[in-house]
Amino acid sequence: MPELRENPKQRDVVGDAAQENALQAPEEISNQARGHKANLSNPNTSEESKENSRQKLEELGGENAFFSKDSK
Fold this sequence. Notes:
single chain; Conidiation-specific_6; Conidiation protein 6-domain-containing protein
């Protein structure tokens, strides 16, 4: 009979996600903000999707979320 192996340790998905957000570079935040801003101006997206993008954009810092190399 084969020997049973121990189950791997479970990930703390919520904790890992919070850690990843804390370590995001300004360029990454700016890229996310650009995607949400593009969604807001896309006539092919639903109002629900646009509302989600409005919320996410606000969480990212609104207009201050956009990274500019000359504003370091």
